[in-house]
Amino acid sequence: MSAASRDEGRVTLVGGGPGNAGLITVAGLDALQRADVVVFDRLAPLSLLQDLPARLIDVGKIPHGPQTTQEAINDILVTEARKGQHVVRLKGGDSFVFGRGSEEWQACTDAGIAVAVVPGVSSAIAAPELAGIPVTHRGLTQGFTVVSGHVPPGDPRCRLDWSALARTGTTLVVLMGVKNLATIADTLVRHGLAADTPAAVVADAGLPSQKVVKAPVADIADAAAGARISPPAVTVIGDVAGLDLGVVGTD
Ligand code: SAH
Hints:
There is one protein chain. By secondary structure, the protein is an alpha/beta fold. It folds into two domains: 10-121, Tetrapyrrole methylase, N-terminal domain (Cobalt-precorrin-4 Transmethylase, domain 1, 3-Layer(aba) Sandwich), CATH 3.40.1010.10; 124-242, Tetrapyrrole methylase, C-terminal domain (Methyltransferase, Cobalt-precorrin-4 Transmethylase, Domain 2, 2-Layer Sandwich), CATH 3.30.950. It is 25% helix and 21% strand. The protein has helices spanning 26-34, 70-82, 101-110, 123-130, 162-166, 181-190, 220-226, and strands spanning 10-15, 37-40, 55-58, 86-91, 114-118, 144-148, 171-175, 198-203, 211-216, 233-237. The strands form two sheets. A five-stranded parallel β-sheet has the order 3-2-4-1-5, sandwiched between helices. β6 (144-148), α5 and β7 form a beta-alpha-beta unit. The radius of gyration is 19 Å and the shape is globular. The two termini are 33 Å apart. The relative contact order is 0.16. S-adenosyl-L-homocysteine (SAH) binds next to α4, β8 and β10. Residues 18-19, 43, 91-94, 97-99, 122-124, 127, 175-176, 202-206, 231-234 line the site of S-adenosyl-L-homocysteine.
């Protein structure tokens, strides 16, 4: 779990789960309560921060707004740990599912700082689940594939094979895909995914503002835009999005 350190300072990467304070693990909560410094951003379950004795550093990244660069975040982690502090980097979801937690880990080990990770509940699974959508369901799908939609299909930076994704037969779970949802849905349909495949967008999962929009994949981008969906949101594409489990509400 940890690397050798030159001093007592250390870093713990904590996955806080999406939105709701109840979705952090016992180990994650314990690390937060013992932290000297907590470095967090806007996707972290912010209500957890209220009564902590730790010093709080907001490195919030607002989409398309002013951003703290990853390098600056890495520097904060290393600099604070070098002062002998126990630094907790609190994320929404899981640290190793997008969000660059593994780069933070590397930055710490490169600097000789001890680093540990407490896995979290990823929004890739929890956001659909909070909306009553299981990412797998016996008889419907035997798997799920999680991808980032932050770079649209067709963009030179895109390293995903969207034609292959259209044919996986797995549920597709798209994170960071609100802006590019129309392009993503069009591309999947153009590559053979049935236009009437069920899809759902779950925004602000785990928060009182949680919103769910469902439509066939061919219409999901219009439906999301019509409902004024904004990030953070997870999109689920596949037969599971059409299941009605009879969910009556979340706590
Ligand atoms: N490490 C995180 C994901 C970071 S990428 C995790 O495991 O959940 C950021 C993306 O996560 C957002 O663009 C959105 O797709 C998703 N996300 C995070 N929190 C969310 C929430 N409360 N509701 C819906 N989606 C969320």
